[in-house]
Structures are given as structure tokens and as C-alpha cells.
Structures
1.
Amino acid sequence: MKQQHVIHHVCASVLVFALAKGNDFMRTQDLRISRDRRADKPAD
């Protein structure tokens, strides 16, 4: 029973880590997109 608890804890940790990584990835993608959008605007 204890082993099952450990496995569950590891899975939860991996899931949280993956979500955090995903959020970082989305943030960098958003930054890149907004930067591209600014670059597309003609400089007056």
C-alpha cells in the first residue's frame, strides 16, 4: 500500500513539473508572437 502512495506522489510531481514547463513554453511562445507582431508594424 505504501508503494502505491509513492508511485502516486511521483506521478503528481511529474504532472506538476510538466504543467510548469508547459506554462513557461506558452509564455515564451506568446512573447515571441507579440515581438513578431511589433516587428511587422511599419516604423513611422
2.
Amino acid sequence: MRVGDGAARRYFVTSDGTTWTELPMPEDIRAAFVRVSGGTWVIVGYGPQEEMEREDANGAASILSPLILDVPEHRVFASDDDGARWTEVELDVGPGTPHVTEVFLYPSALLVSGECIVVPVILSRYLDWSSLLSDRGLMADDRLAGCWQRTEDSVLQCLVLDPDLEDEIASEVEEALLNLFAAVDSDDVVNINDLDALGRTVFEVLDELPGVASLEVAVDELDLTEDQQAVLMAHVAQIEMLAEESPTGFGFYRLGFADFVTTRIFAGGRSGLTPSADLQGWPYSSLTTPGGFLLHVVGTTSAIAHSPDGRHWHKTHIGASQLSFAVTFTLFEPFTTLQPLGGVADGTVWGRAWADGGGLAITTLRIGEAPRIERVFEGLGPGRRLEDMAAGPAGLATVATRHWVDEADQYNDRTLVGWSADGAQWGWQSTAEAFGITDEYLGEKAVAVELAVGADFVLALMEDNQDFTSYPLRWFIAPIPSQR
């Protein structure tokens, strides 16, 4: 449990839902993830954020460099004495790939099983055109370069300039780049003709500026390694996708940044974490299972990645063709896709999806297999979706929240809380029945519920809001009888 205390955050753990123990945090570290596994406590956090100026390989912030976000540096800490002493766990990023710039954005999750620690980190990868062209003898060492691959062939259009000229031409470059909006239709679909015209416009504006030279380079001339080629092809695929349709992932930006990020998985123990795998896409959800670790990665494709030890990973692609026709697992709106949420004692991984027409579905997943529809809910009323769900040794619990109502049904309780021991048979209660709290959809009060399932109990964190004011959090516990 995380509790806000002014600017600080305090964390508490429980094994029975009744007795809570506070987790001491490392000094000056703000935790983003906290996990407890047996006697091992692990956190991922960051210190006070400082102003950072990122520089490219030539030591100057370049207008030809890709957009880089300023994010705080995250660190990993572990403790085996209930948080009395914390040891920083080093992330060994390794030497990297020559002429590839890797921008580590932030960890997306923290998974711990026994002494094994797994940290998926989101990063963006770009070819460093300045160092690459210089190394291949295609330009002088003291120049900056940026290249764009033409969509119709394997030729790169490159611009080479003196770093001292950047300040002088930055305003003209910015004006040219503003034409990006002209390539996006009102429905946010990029037209390939507009996109190509935009590329030519920007290139022509830059090429006409004093001190800037243009260069055409065939991809074959660069003698790219397999990894470098993959980085280039990812960006070519992004251009082609933007020209054809909206991005498939839930974009970090409107133009699909999240579709082409890389998830690098670091694994190890308290002595240090090293890279174990690179997965293309955004880690939409993750969990620890009795058999290891699981990630649901969404990008240009959707896949389940699993590992028994955090070091060796296997991917299973999922898509509509593998599943019941009654349920839509769309790649275009990942909030409606399969979402692995938790496991039960027998190793089953539970998830959720939307059925055609807006229905709700509970899914099961066996490692290495496609998800299977376990139950499609009907009769819960219009406009509901599974807003929160938890699975654990005792079973499953979920919250169905109303997102739209018809006029005749608008005053019904907004939220339903559901419980099941096996995923097949379900019982439902309104928030008034479960907590004695009326949840009005169009009235003054709205209730948000988060759930957690333990060995023999279910916890519900309830927060009500009124007039945009958040009131104190309240916890409810439901013991599970030993005989059911």
C-alpha cells in the first residue's frame, strides 16, 4: 500500500490484510515501484530531479538529433533485513552497439521472485549519423549529420553541417518543422503524399541554408551490423505506418512514439543486474507467476513474453486469429486488449478483454499458448468495462465501472465489485452493498476502487471524490472462508 504524506510517500505491507508494516525507504529516494518477495525487499526509485542537458556524441545539443526527454535517473535498491539497510543494485548497461544512441527513459515495472530481480526498462534507439558517416569516411569528423531514408528505395538523404552554425539556422529549421501539422489530417491520419511532401520541404529548406551540405548515401555503403540495421528498419517502419494508418500502440505521442520503443530487460540479484533480452514495444502489463515472469508487450505487434528465470525469454504472439470470434483483441486500442493481471495457485494467468459490442470477458493464459476466453459477462448493464482487476491464490476480484449510461439507467450505481474463486462463477455487489457507500454517476459523489487478492482475503481500497476534492482513503477486507 502506498500512502501520500505531503510531498513524501510511505509504503506499508501486509500478509493478512489486518496487520500493516511500514517499509523504510532509502534516504532521499522517491520510490516508483516496491516489491516484497520472502525476505527480499526491492524498490526502484529516483532522487531529487536535477536539470540535465543532454548532449549528442559531438558534445553539442543538435537540431539534427531526435527528441530526447529529460527524465530522472532511476536506481534500484534491495534489502534483506526488512528495510533496515538498503544496498544499491547496479544496472550494467554494457558497451552498447557502435553508432547507436540509446536513451534510457525509465523502468516500466519491477518483478521479484525469491532472490531474482527483473527490471524492464523502456529506451529509444537511434543511429548516430554523425559518428557513423564519419567512421565510414563519408564526412569530416567535426561535422554533424542527420539522415532520412526515402520510403521508395534504400537511399538515405543526409544533411551535413558545421556545429557552429546551429544557433544561426535553428529558427528557420523550427519553422520548417512546424509544417509537420500540415501532414496530419483532422482525423489524425497521416497521408503518404503529405508526408513525403513534408520530408522534401524540410530537406529543401535545410539544404538551402549556408554552411549546410546535402549527401545521398546508399544503405549498402554503410555496411550496417544486424543490430544497426534493425534500428534503421524500425524507423523506416514507423514512417510507413504513419503514412498508412494510425499507430497500433497506445502512443506516447500522437505519432506513435510508443510503438517503436524497445523494452530492455535487466535481470540478476543483489550483486547487479545485466541485460537479458530486448523486446520491441511497450510493456503494457507484467507479473510474477509461479513459473517465472511474464510481460505483455504492445507495439507494432502484441506478444506475451515469459521467462522461468528472468534471463531466458520466449515470445508468444497474440492476435484476433488465435482467439474466439466473440472477443475482439484489437491491436489498435491496447486498453481493450488482453491484459495479464495475476496468477492463482495452479499457475493460471488471468486477464481481461472486451467482447464485440462492448461486453466484458475474463481470459486465461497458459504459458506458450494463446489466451482462452473463460467467461463473457452479460447483464451487467450498458457501458461498463473492467476498470480494475486482481488475481491471487484465493481467486479473482474485479471492478466493473460504468462509462456511459442511457437516460433510463443513469441513476444506478456506477461501480460493481465482482468476486470469483475459479473465474467461472461470479458474484456481484454494488458499492452500496459492498461498502455501504452510494456511488452516483451524475451526482456529487464518485467512487474509485482498487483491489488486491491474498491467500485467504480480498482487500479493497476505496476513494470517493466530491466536487473534485479527494477524501481520505478507506480500506475494506473480505475474509475468504476455508470451505467454499
